[in-house]
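cache lookup: miss for this entity combination. No prior model stored, computing from scratch. Input as submitted by user K.M.:
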Amino acid sequence: MATDSAFQQCINPACGAQYAVDEVHVTCPQCGDLLDIAYDWNRLPVPACLADFQAKWAQRLDPLAFSGVWRFHELLPFARREHVVTVGEGQTMLQRGDGVARYIGLDAGRLYLQYEGLNPSGSFKDNGMTAAFTHARMIGARRAACASTGNTSASLAMYCAVSGLMKAVIFIGSGKISYGKLSQALEFGALTVQISGDFDDAMARVTEVSKRLGIYVVNSINPFRLEGQKTVMYRVLEGLGWQVPDWIVVPGGNLGNSSAFGKAFSELQQLGLIDRIPRLAVVNAAGSDTLFQLYEQGGLRWNHGYPDRQHIADYYGEMDTQQRKASTIASAIEINRPVNLNKCLRALDVCRGVVARVTDQEILDAKAQVGLGGFGCEPASAASVAGAKLLCEQGVIDKSERVVCVLTGHQLKDPGATVAYHTTDQEQFNRVLASRGVSRAAFANRAVAVPNDVNEIVKVVQLYS
Ligand SMILES: *Cc1c(COP(=O)(O)O)cnc(C)c1O
Ligand SMILES: [Zn+2]
């Protein structure tokens, strides 16, 4: 039994084992299930209302007040201030997007986009990495590792390089990582281990190797990471003047975000800081739809902490027998064995959630629509918008409801997909997109070819502008 006001706790109610925050476990040593960071809120100072956090804006020379994660320190109080490692993450924004609302089928003024691509390494991962990294520092780690489809490694490499506190070791599958992300890990000096396999293989190997060598693991199986990711929702509420929206829509990969969001809302409600919880929609890509298959098709539920484990095991067994591999242009969610599945089931329960599934075609069209709004996103992020559109068409989301789509990563993370969508080069389109079942680019903005001649150029500019 942990005695501190912050401790680790197994999410399996049949186990419920507790561990101190300065212990390091990837999963529960007793039963193997996922761990939560839990708090004895009665012994901790909690603000009387959420608007109190705005006072921190006046103290922006204090790095902990400047950080969009740590200015909510009271809501993730597992670390002492002096241990916190911050690079100013979480300076992101919520923007009303009427153009995208129209595309989705929502009334004007009802859609908001949360741009997490504005983080220092270009994705929401920084929210979680600052928290996991802080914990790694608390326990004196010298090396930190992750398996990554790209953004986790970019973020880890950045925290290691900026702080100089640890060496980053990253595991990537072969041929799956986009250049924007790989370039970050390489340039920030991470040891980059390329495995001949996919993300699910890299995830399995990082766990084994780190265990053997005593390396700190920062994948989202790490419960401290999810504490940092809760703050995405605090900032959404802040952006809405502390009003709770009707829907949060988020892409689902390893299901860390969706799990963290559910935890954030259930804690805020428990603390009396909000009076209702928004509904959650998690969006899978059609080529990596484990959550959709289990939750929507198979009826798998959290079931008070007792999800049908046999059902899950059977599903994975069948996946292995048929040698099904995840495949989508949205590489950040190209994951068939989401490590946070059980936590996500809990979040879906708390938030009366739904799971949607969208094709690569729908993802890229939605991405083009997001880009037209001025701030772009990478393919995985656009799954949220594509999912919201689908759920609107299905009548699950009503056009008058207030919807927040989380845009998880920056547009420049994966320029290959964007350029292929807008290209005039049919060969390039086929190679990158047609091979993924994308047959058209309805919103392509194609470059116009002209001879090197002023009169010809003038004609073209007048014709098209
Ligand atoms: C990691 C990542 C995701 C998936 O998030 P999970 O928390 O693993 O579900 C989605 N989009 C982007 C851009 C990511 O980097
Ligand atoms: Zn346990």
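stored under new cache key. The chain has a mean pLDDT of 95.
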